[in-house]
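Structure ticket #2291
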Amino acid sequence: MIYSCRRSMATSPSCADPCKLFLIYLLLFSMLPALMQCRPLTPPKMMHEKRPRPAAEHDIVAAGLRVGLVHRDSPLSPLFPGNITSTERVKQAVGRSQERLGTLVHRSSAERKLQMEAPLSRGVGGRGEFMMTVGIGEPSLSYSGIVDTGSDLIWTQCLPCDSCLNQSSPIYDPSHSSTYKAMTCESSECQSNPVNTFCGGEQCHYLYEYADRSSSAGILSSEKFTFSSHQSVQQIIFGCGQDNHGDLGRGGGMVGFGRGSLSLISQLASLGIGNKFSYCLMPFTDSPSKVSPLFIGHTATLNNNTNASSTPFVQNMAQSSFYYLSLGGISVGGALLDNIPAATFDIQDDGSGGFMIDSGTTLTYLYVDAYNVLKNTLISSINLPQADGSPIHLDLCYSSSSSHLSNFPTITFHFKGGADYDLPPQSYMYVDHSSDIMCLSMLPSSHMSVLGNFQQQNYHFLYDNDNNMLSFAPTVCDAL
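Resolution: structure written out below.
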């Protein structure tokens, strides 16, 4: 009010009187101490104050999150394939694993011309195996996103679309949300360039490509994300995808859980809930309708499980988002396979090789030399006639009617730090009663090794990025 009075006086003819001007200046001078007391409200001071969190955001900081992971084959999933046979289900899973491996091989290698060992698919990043439901915007609009521990960006399809894929839920329209904000070219999120960003007008545009030639392009933005009825977080950076190509299987986008700065885990960690998450995957042969628990932040813990083991993550400079581990050797029935060279699972100078854990790959892949040693050892120790695995595209198979899981030994992966990961037969042999076969759910790879989700079932895995450590413990996931 003082400033508006001053402006009006300065433009009024009556202000021409020198005496009146002197009185005005004297009045303003006398009020200067009072005006200075208002300094805490000025913009320069506000820039240094901590932004207060909304109550719901405070809840998530204090308690962390628990959400459900829905398998893509579940009737609860938009990717539900219908009532298919168990043979067809595992055959499709093997096909997706091959596609996924091709994507991981390409992205992990600094030599981008490296030929992928799997044919190019039409899926988005290998399409993934588990979904989570999130709400976006205010008012909140729910969509199912593919959870991907092998990528960082969170993105969903956005209107208006240049090219959008078919999805089961309504496509998000940022013009209907009161909390949407497009990132500018000058924003730190755009300048740091954690994904391929470029300027289009004043907005920060992104292009995220997968090795299978699927992609998402649009505007790098921030928005309110809701994870339950009482837990939401403001200003999550995500890709508002307006030009998307590939196959989401009627899903709404991707939720990156990688180690990069734009992943959901990294962004939530900035709120003080801890840079960690854990999950416990239901067995593949259980009903796909079962929901696996996923914990984020302070809720991610193994609850002092005395059977827990830990091993550090290994950095791959060519692909810093992946979760690599140091696998030192493999045992079968307690006997170490000493004819596997010690450096078999090391990361190579060009970024290829290595051993990673990935939730989006169903099968486990071992470097071809190690796979052959393991396969031949199993054949020798089991001593049963083999069966044809071509109906489900697997390699080492036996008749399920003439053999039993009790005939098979335990396989142990020996990780750095003394962490032994035991695989009982039900965690590496897939039994398909429809085709009367049981098969090793592992295959050879020419370029890298991957611990797939079939071998992760009924283990609770804790990804602790604060301490650069993976911990695991055998767990009945239904009991969590």
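Closing remark: The CA atoms of residues 132 and 193 lie 27 Å apart.
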